[in-house]
Recover the amino acids of this structure.
């Protein structure tokens, strides 16, 4: 199991490298359009909920690696394209020295460990990969910056009822739905959509792209 391998790598290298695992938004919460059939976790509606789940996750996986919790804006997950899971090595120069492929299939502890061993020996790892640029569009429907954010949000309303459900949002924005839905009624009304537009403008249009349909 990858968690066990990650714990073993931590125990092997913890005196030569700092290890952190960062808990981000649940990729397939049970109230998600594509829920997990194995993990029964609701989408986090507060930082306290996310912290509680992260603590339970660490205990269930027997991980003693120090943990950090991503904020409710999913800043780390978005900046590092880290959902659902991904391995990184940050060098002493604060630059990415190694970036694993996206999980779960690309979550390769052995590959990361090989890269870490090379770095500690002063060598350049064979595989370095860079995360996708922040804000890259997923699928069709992307493009433009913050200036046309209002049009992008309006285009997400597939059934033209004036409300946005989680399923109508782009995949990235779905991760933040609980934070965007400030009154917790299950959809974004006009005021919440306006706040979403302003957020997209300040973030250079992040969240654009083709939303997932309900499955």
């Amino acid at each position: 199991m990858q968690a066990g391998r990650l714990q073993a790598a931590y125990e092997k290298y913890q005196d030569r490298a700092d290890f952190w695992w960062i808990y981000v938004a649940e990729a397939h919460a049970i109230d998600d359009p594509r829920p997990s059939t194995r993990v029964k976790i609701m989408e986090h509606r507060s930082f306290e909920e996310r912290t509680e789940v992260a603590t339970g996750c660490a205990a269930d996986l027997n991980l003693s690696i120090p943990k950090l919790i991503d904020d409710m804006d999913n800043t780390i997950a978005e900046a590092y394209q880290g959902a659902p899971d991904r391995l990184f090595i940050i060098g002493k120069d604060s630059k990415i020295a190694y970036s694993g492929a996206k999980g779960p299939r690309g979550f390769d502890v052995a590959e990361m460990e090989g890269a870490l061993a090379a770095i500690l020996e002063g060598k350049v790892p064979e595989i370095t990969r860079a995360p996708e640029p922040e804000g890259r569009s997923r699928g069709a429907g992307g493009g433009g910056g913050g200036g046309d954010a209002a049009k992008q949000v309006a285009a997400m309303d597939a059934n033209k009822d004036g409300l946005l459900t989680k399923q109508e949002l782009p995949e990235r924005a779905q991760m933040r739905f609980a934070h965007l839905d400030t009154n917790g009624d299950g959809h974004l009304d006009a005021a919440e959509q306006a706040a979403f537009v302003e957020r997209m403008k300040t973030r250079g249009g992040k969240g654009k792209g083709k939303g997932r349909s309900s499955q």
